[in-house]
Amino acid sequence: MRVKMFAAVITASVGLGACARISTQQEAQMGQNYAQQINAQLPIIRDAEANAYINRLGDSLAVLVDTQGRNWQFFLVDDPEVNAFAVPGGYIYVNKGLVLRAQTLSQLAGVVGHEIAHVTQRHSVQQMEKQQGIGIGATLVCIWQPSFCQQGGGDLLNLGATAAMAKFSRNDETEADREGLKYIVRAGLDPNGMPEMFEILLAERRSRGGGGGGFLASHPMEEDRIRNTRAMIQQLPPDQRSGTRDSEAFQRFKARLAALPPTPRPR
Ligand SMILES: [Zn+2]
User: Fold this and answer.
1) Whether 177 is catalytic
2) Residue 72 domain-assigned (yes or no)
3) What percent of the chain has pLDDT over 90?
4) Which of 99, 106, 229, 251 qualifies as a cystine partner to 190, CB 3.0-4.6 A?
5) DSSP at 210
6) In total, how many domains does the chain have?
7) pLDDT tens digits for range 22-57
8) Cα 237 from Cα 168, distance rounded (Å)
9) Does residue 101 fall inside a structural domain?
10) How far is the CA of 188 from the centre of ligand 1 (A)?
């Protein structure tokens, strides 16, 4: 079975000389540009209450740890796939499907923390810096499920003309998991939500028959990440290995999202 992929790929000319470092200001400018393109093409949920919630959660994870003072913005996408992605400059997109699959606040925080870490660790920006010398337009892809994106197919939402598809290295993913766990702990939430969310994903993949063959079967991404993040949590000081797991506000947010009418797809 072909796994449906949700990804946004967009191009932009960075317009810098080779090897130049992209400044925080340039990153903000690019991010804003990307976010405008994405928001014009994806079914972004505009419900004020749901948006207030995801932005409060995101800010509680991001603002304390971001030394660059980015203008963080969190968006909900009306897409059933379990996915999320990040855009340089601090724009984080979370699919409705992911929120609905999360059973607790800390599980959702695990994903959001991971995406925030891709931005604070400048993973996309560093790729752009490397690409400038050979004149490739900047690309973004932060896919919460990197194994999906490496298939290079699926329902790729192509927002640009010819976009080279960047993907984060295994190292970047591991770093985003490790950093993300720190942010979750700092916000007083339970870091175990992150491996728990991987477990949900793994169970879903198995129930879809995804373990039966193909790329996903040969790249047991979730299994590795469950093991690795559990080990990272064991290395934390004992008082940081637990925290708030859930809240009534999260459950209300989830119920509200579930009840919203479908968002029309922009044309
Ligand atoms: Zn990632």
Assistant:
1) yes
2) yes
3) 48
4) 106
5) G
6) 1
7) 888 888 888 888 888 889 888 999 999 999 999 999
8) 29
9) yes
10) 22
